[in-house]
């Protein structure tokens, strides 16, 4: 069996999804997602210019060797662009493998460990009262877990993933007016004074059954994060995410020494080697890698298995930047992983998105039920894809009030 060709598409409804379709001489094709938020043309170029020419003629069943070829075979390896591209190929090869076997992917991983996977949604508000309304809406829809983010009184701009004004809509992350980023202003002291009380109010209003998560989005210094994690203990968070910038892994040790709040990290990790020490030293509770940026199903399965040795559960990244293809890969991993924790899931299910990526994965009452179709269980409509083209966008940047550049 041989790979005969591959095509890359960039575009989608409200997002620049990067989709690869790999064709074979057996008439079976596989799909992969290389979307890298606000840098989408780069994994697309890495695929088109370097990886696809070396794929043609290879046996698609040899997904392990192909992964090693593209990862180890590149002298300058790793990084989000290359890993998103390699990850997309890996997903597509697993899709082909499942279709060849006539089995949904989770069966190839070892079968289902659960019937449905708990997902969390993003509740957000310009202020705490708006946020409470947003949480209430998700609870009414049956969600069992929500991430909560709100504006901080006195902060000059809204804060991470928060609308500027009451009732604001959108993903509050990508600005599609161009590649020049808008600026947000951050004030750590105000955040640290306000947020613990706000989290406690949410817990008191919604009770202990609701899983409450909060994303600091890399903005605290290690000592601040340790103090914050300790102070929010009474709110019994399901997790505190990215309390400090991901590069400084020792920061997690300081947080651990001072608090029992569960810590989740890893959405910006690109490889198994970004995760292994944190997992082995049991400095985190949840690993947040995405099958795209971490290089595909092949390495993420290894991460999950290592995590299982160390009481670390999964909480894969599922921001709206991921297409239904990589989300499907995660649904299959979630159905199998013995150490599954939770899945971030932003409702992609608009009619336009469903038309572009038809699938039978079912979201119901805050749970994801994986499709029984062979492979990933998601398709891609090339006719629909012609409706979309690339639109440049940017993440905001963050500055402190004196102008110092800070972590977004
Ligand atoms: O592109 C940036 C997003 O992926 C990121 O802000 C999302 O932190 C995020 C999350 O937890 O979903
Ligand atoms: Mg995050």
Keywords:
single chain; 408 residues; alpha/beta; Enolase-like, domain 1; TIM Barrel; 2 domains; ten-stranded mixed sheet; three-stranded antiparallel sheet; 13 helices; 16 strands; globular; binds 2-keto-3-deoxygluconate; binds magnesium ion
CATH superfamily of the largest domain: Enolase-like C-terminal domain
Count of distinct strands: 16
Name of the CATH architecture of the largest domain: Alpha-Beta Barrel
Q: Could you say how many structural domains there are in total?
A: 2
The number of helical runs is 13
What does this structure look like?
With 408 residues, the protein is α/β, with parallel strands linked by helices. It folds into two domains: 3-103, Enolase-like, domain 1 (2-Layer Sandwich), CATH 3.30.390; 108-406, TIM Barrel. Helices cover 36% and strands 17% of the residues. The protein has helices at residues 41-55, 63-71, 80-101, 105-109, 128-140, 188-206, 222-231, 251-258, 272-280, 297-309, 324-336, 351-356, 382-385; strands at 3-10, 18-24, 29-33, 117-125, 145-150, 183-186, 211-215, 239-241, 263-265, 286-287, 313-314, 343-344, 362-364, 367-369, 397-400, 405-406. Strands 4, 5, 7, 8, 9, 10, 11, 12, 13 and 14 form a ten-stranded mixed β-sheet that branches. A three-stranded antiparallel β-sheet has the order 1-2-3. Helix 1 crosses helix 3 (80-101), helix 2 (63-71) runs antiparallel to helix 3 and helix 9 (272-280) packs parallel to helix 10 (297-309). The mean pLDDT is 96.
